[in-house]
Amino acid sequence: MTPTLVDVVERNRQHPDTFAVPDQAQLPLVAIGDVVKVCLEAPNKEGERFWVLVTENNPLAKTFKGTVDNELVVFDGFPLHMEMEVEYRHVLDWWVMQ
After folding, report:
1. Which residues contact 62 (CB under 8 A, 6 or more apart)?
2. 49-55 long-range CB contacts below 8 Å, 24 or more apart?
3. What is the pLDDT of residues 52-75, one digit of tens each?
4. Residue 73: enclosing H or E segment and its boundaries?
5. Would residue 95 be called left, alpha or beta, if left means φ above 0 and alpha means ψ between -120 and 50 degrees?
6. Of the residues 33, 59, 76, 88, which has the maximum number of CB atoms within 10 A of its CB?
7. Is-contact 84 67, C-beta < 8 A?
8. Which ranges in 1-98 belong to alpha helices (H)?
9. What is the rounded distance in angstroms from the CA atom of residue 1 to the CA atom of residue 4?
10. pLDDT tops 80 at residue 1
């Protein structure tokens, strides 16, 4: 089964006391070179959180483009530096790198 990015906004709605997410209104402030944390899940597998180094932030589309910034253990189909696109609703956390 193909892993999917977790919709953390929906997960927060389901579990507001135990699943915190960043304020979606702040995500347009994420700069090129910052990192966002996302989570993959697949049936019958553990979930895995990892960082994506932001190369583009499109506030109108509410998406980031970037590259995988750490090696994954559970999902080997997402190699280091792989390019990917994530929606704001997938961002579990973010870190200013500059």
Report:
1. 27, 87, 88, 89
2. 49/92, 50/78, 51/95, 52/84, 52/86, 54/30, 55/83
3. 999 999 999 999 999 999 999 999
4. none
5. beta
6. 88
7. yes
8. 8-14
9. 9
10. no
Q: pLDDT tens-digit profile of 14-49?
A: 999 999 999 999 999 999 999 999 999 999 988 999
Yes or no: say if 32 and 80 are a contact pair by the CB < 8 Å rule. Answer: no
Mention every residue, 6+ apart, whose C-beta is less than 8 A from residue 14. none
E strands, the chain, in order: 4-5, 35-41, 48-58, 63-68, 83-87, 93-95
Instruction: Write the single-letter amino acid at 33.
Output: G
Contact present, 52 and 35 (Cβ < 8 Å) = yes
Q: How far apart are CA 66 and CA 20, in angstroms?
A: 23
